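Predict the 3D structure for this chain.
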Amino acid sequence: MAKKLSGKVALVTGGSRGIGAATALALAEEGADVVISYTAAADKAAEVVKKIEAKGVRGFAIRADQGNISEAEGLVGKTVDKFGKLDILVNNAAVFVMAPVGGDVDAEALERQNKINVDGVFATTRAAAKVLPDHGRIITIGSGAGTRTGFNGAADYSATKAAVGAFNRVAARDLAARNITVNTLQAGFVDTDMNPENSDWAPAWIATVPLGRYGRPEEIAAGVVFLASPEASYVTGTLLNIDGGLLA
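Done. Predicted structure below.
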């Protein structure tokens, strides 16, 4: 039986771990060939590629720094060179920097956060828009913090996530004539290396989630698969919240 993404080629940035790895595997499960990018964890990326290929599709890993615009753009060309085309882009790579307004901040870390979370997403999206076929898909993993932040110290991070949401809403209009859909999936608190559910601050954050728990990377990946699927052909320019009710 043909799977819903058979014959498609997907690129997942930051795909060596967490939400990115879960997304890469979920897309592969539905028949897509998947390219992932990584910055430093070559061994983890190689393991994800093995798992992708074990599902009977093609996998490939490319080292690229999403904070470097030329490398972010280059991912698209390298994907097309490897597999001949690109149908689905998933902008997943991101970092999180706490920086209370009025306190001391690491200016270099904040600049890098902006480059990865905003500039890299913009660059990869623009590059993908030039090669995606009609009915292609662009999906960005955002954060509920882009709509409302219920804790201190994340003004800069929240601003980066609000920025990509706004960018995607207008990009959806720009690409609508080609039936390319552009959406932002806003995740809540998800158990990843960046934000583990056993951290010191997790109990306070879980208390704000109606479902009373952290999400799993696989639950976010399921949303990506939906947005990449034929069933989501009339969904564009939207924010899909998968957050356990955090923004309810």
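The first strand starts at residue 9 and ends at 12.
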